[in-house]
Design a protein that fits this description.
Number of helices: 28
Largest sheet: 8 strands, parallel
CATH class of the largest domain: Alpha Beta
Helix content: 40-55%
Number of domains: 2
CATH topology of the largest domain: TIM Barrel
Number of strands: 23
Radius of gyration: 26 Å
Structural class: alpha/beta
Length: 771
């Protein structure tokens, strides 16, 4: 048996790629220096994989921003608005990712970025390609050729990895006049050109990633897949094709792909384990193909259970000989941190249960060895580590478990209903039509980050650190008042991350020093590790929010992260159901909500940015497996508050149109959502939303500053589709990653646009009751 992986992290163990790329954005290094630094990082990772015993390394899994964007660029699927900027190839690529605005802001030089969406059921974000004029057979594959050449110079056994044509087409936005049939034929020709180019290199296999095959597929979807691949497979130039799938099973198309001319099939035997194994045992596995068996979890960070993996291998032994079996990861290791060896402060009882990307390479080698020569001592040690600590007081809280079980059995609904509590809230808050606010965070400046570092290193006392942060809060409250915002926030300067900060104040969480995972582009996050039962020892946001509210007569939102987002943006334990973990977190957040209310906070925002993120990829599993308990967990956080307390929630970069009923069921008084990168196409789906709603009117993940006229036009469009008396005016998301100057300019324009529209459509100061 050989070993391989689907892909590897690229951000860098110390976020080196982020540093290089952002230096380039700031003009501190040249394009040549950026490319050279990135090449060294990439090659070091290849050599590490070889050193750890990996038989085959993927190449082209490395990206400056996003693999789907890379594929669009390779295929020259570049909308005209970016081509017309007249930039270099790399700067055009970054303009598609981040938007573009020149220093003069002249006409034609102010362009929004491509839409951003969540990558299946992960916290990674991809950029949505836009097909404007079809897909030609001419490609620009210099990056791919260069990586293949570099791998050969290092003597690697390598395999080029590409997003497959079916997934590319299914996730792209077709703005052309071309039919799917025409685009399928064009894609087959374009990918054929890639295979022709790869024939110059020594790679035996080419990996085509088709995760879209784990979604619900209709007969038309299957026909489209076959329509693309039949001519493409006929164009092979000596290479073998690995069809790689992940994130689930391929029940709707397994029989078809088995009969096509692929040389190998990659299956996820973790998330799609049960379904894919049943497919293999029911239909068998073709004798002319290799199976890339995804046995090591690419999305979670726990030690592999060798006994379970070997049991799966035992079932596979009945289906095919081991020389046709390749041990692999369930998906790309992009979704886990680099290595446990960088965690110098983490206690050994935690570290020994972890396997990050580098450790998973070793696990593949260990599984290969154990499959060939079982070692009872290694297996016993593996089991002892996995089950250690089950009765450790750091992990076990019987009271919390019982409370969570009681919540699971109870009916959770806020009283009175929204129609009855809405007048009470308006009477208390006295907000204007189209009230303006932000989502929560303000820019985390270098100064703030330096204070946090100094505090952690003992160079600032707790009192000194808090006083400096209070100074920033005072400053941001004054700035928001000057800008004219109606509902203010405290800026979240005390928070390193919207999930990490909460985990640090709750029992049951463990944190890493360098457990960075890429969220999008240069954005990295450090997900907490949920090791034990979750509880809240004491209030931790109340004093900050109270202080901010004491500085102004305008309402200041209490800012909290919701239980589903905390769960979905953490690495969850695997010994109890996810629903039980969610209820435990919800009870902790509920206590914080009630303490905020007791201390006079009239508006409390409970963000659920990641609600849709773990939605099962197949609709039949939505209510049964996820939505019912996710909604219940959110309602558990706020159902005990008074009628006059206004509850907000926020969701970003998720396709929300298909869960509109779920949005209503959350029973938040105000829902703010990402809409700008989706060209506000979400508005139609929200037309029957029955509470307050704030579709984001500008994209905070781009440095461009939208003009007043642009924002006013967007707001008028919203008023035409939604009732003006239910609309809030806000950006797409938090402002943590933006610069202060662009933030102030954008918010000034946002407020001016709201005032302009109020005057234009002659709205009185106070809205009537939402119907």
């Amino acid at each position: 048996m050989q070993t391989t992986i689907v892909g590897y992290p690229r951000l860098g163990a110390q976020r080196e790629l982020k540093k290089y790329t952002e230096q380039y954005f700031r003009g501190e290094i040249t394009q040549a220096e950026l490319l050279q630094s990135a090449a060294k990082l990439r090659e070091a990772q290849w050599l590490l994989q070889k050193q750890k015993g990996l038989a085959i390394s993927p190449v082209n899994d490395f990206s400056f921003y996003d693999n789907l964007l890379d594929m669009a660029f390779l295929l020259k699927v570049i909308p005209a608005r970016y081509q017309e900027l007249g930039l270099s190839a790399l700067d055009t690529y970054f303009a598609m990712a981040r938007g573009y605005q020149d220093s003069s802001g002249s006409a034609g030089q102010n362009v929004r970025a491509l839409k951003m969406r969540k990558w299946f059921n992960t916290n990674y974000h991809y950029l949505v390609p836009e097909i404007e004029g079809g897909i030609g057979s001419e490609i620009q594959a210099d990056k791919l050729w260069q990586e293949c050449s570099a791998a050969e110079k290092l003597g690697l056994n390598y395999r080029p990895a590409l997003i497959g044509p079916y997934t590319f087409l299914r996730l792209s936005l077709n703005k052309s006049a071309q039919s799917l049939d025409t685009l399928a034929a064009e894609l087959a020709a374009a990918y054929g050109a890639i295979l022709t180019g790869l024939a110059r290199y020594s790679c035996e296999y080419v990996q085509l990633d088709e995760p879209a095959l784990v979604l619900d597929l209709t007969a038309d979807d299957s026909a489209l897949f076959e329509q693309i691949y039949l001519p493409l497979l006929a164009q092979k130039r000596g290479q073998k094709i690995l069809l790689q799938t992940y994130f689930g099973d391929i029940r709707d198309i397994y029989a078809k792909v088995s009969g096509l001319g692929f040389d190998a099939l990659g299956l996820d035997l973790v998330e799609g384990g049960r379904g894919n194994l049943e497919l293999l045992e029911k239909y068998g596995f073709p004798a002319d193909k290799k199976l890339y068996a995804g046995l090591v979890n690419g999305k979670n960070i726990w030690l592999n259970d060798y006994q379970k993996s070997l049991a799966v291998l035992g079932r596979l032994d009945k289906l095919l000989p081991r020389e046709r079996l390749v041990l692999s990861t369930s998906c790309s290791l992009l979704h886990v941190p680099y290595s446990v060896r960088y965690e110098r402060k983490l206690a050994e009882k935690y570290k020994r249960r972890l396997a990050f990307a580098e450790e998973k390479l070793a696990e593949l080698s260990a599984l290969k060895m154990l499959a060939e020569n079982p070692d009872p001592a290694i297996l016993q040690r593996n089991q002892e580590i996995i089950w250690a600590g089950q009765n450790d007081p750091d992990f076990l809280n019987r009271q919390v478990r019982e409370q969570a079980r009681q919540a699971a059995a109870a009916e959770i609904a806020r009283q009175p209903i929204f129609a009855a509590r809405q007048p009470e809230q308006q009477k208390q808050l006295n907000l204007p039509w189209l009230p303006t606010t932000t989502i929560g965070s303000f820019p985390q400046t270098a100064e703030v980050r330096a204070w946090r570092k100094a505090y952690k290193q003992g160079q600032l006392t707790a009192a000194e650190y808090q006083e400096r942060l209070k100074g920033k809060i005072k400053e941001v409250i004054a700035r928001q008042e000057e800008l004219g915002l109606d509902v203010l926030v405290h800026g979240e300067y005390e928070r390193n991350d919207m999930v990490e900060y909460f985990g640090e104040h709750l029992q049951g969480f463990v944190f890493t020093e360098n457990g960075w995972v890429q969220s999008y582009g240069t954005r990295g996050v450090k997900p907490p590790l949920i090791f034990g039962d979750v509880a809240r020892p004491a209030a931790f946001t109340v004093e900050w929010i109270k202080y901010a509210q004491s500085l102004t007569a305008r309402p200041v939102k209490g800012m909290l992260t919701g239980p589903i987002t905390i769960l979905n943006w953490s690495f969850p334990r695997e010994d109890i159901p996810l629903a039980e973990i969610a209820y435990q977190i919800a009870l902790a957040i509920q206590a914080e909500v009630l303490d905020l209310e007791k201390n006079g906070i009239k508006i409390i925002q409970i963000d659920e940015a990641a609600l849709r993120e773990k939605l099962p990829l197949r609709r039949a599993d939505w209510q049964r497996d996820y939505l019912a308990w996710a909604v219940k967990a959110f309602r558990l956080t706020h159902y005990l508050v008074k009628p006059e307390t206004q509850i907000h929630t926020h969701m970003c970069y998720s396709e929300l149109a298909d869960i509109s009923a779920t949005l209503k069921a959350l029973d938040a008084d105000v829902l703010t959502v990402e809409a700008a990168r989706s060209d506000w196409t979400l508005l139609a789906a929200l037309a029957d939303y029955d509470k307050y709603i704030g579709p984001g009117i500008y994209d905070v993940h781009s440095p461009r500053v939208p003009a007043v006229e642009e924002l006013a036009g967007i707001l008028e469009k919203m008023c035409a589709q939604l009732a003006a008396d239910q609309l809030w005016v806000n950006p797409d998301c938090g402002l943590k990653t933006r610069a202060e100057a662009e933030t102030t300019a954008s918010l000034r324009n946002l407020v001016a646009a709201a005032v302009l529209v109020r005057e234009k459509i002659s709205l009185p100061f106070s809205p009537k009751q939402v119907k």
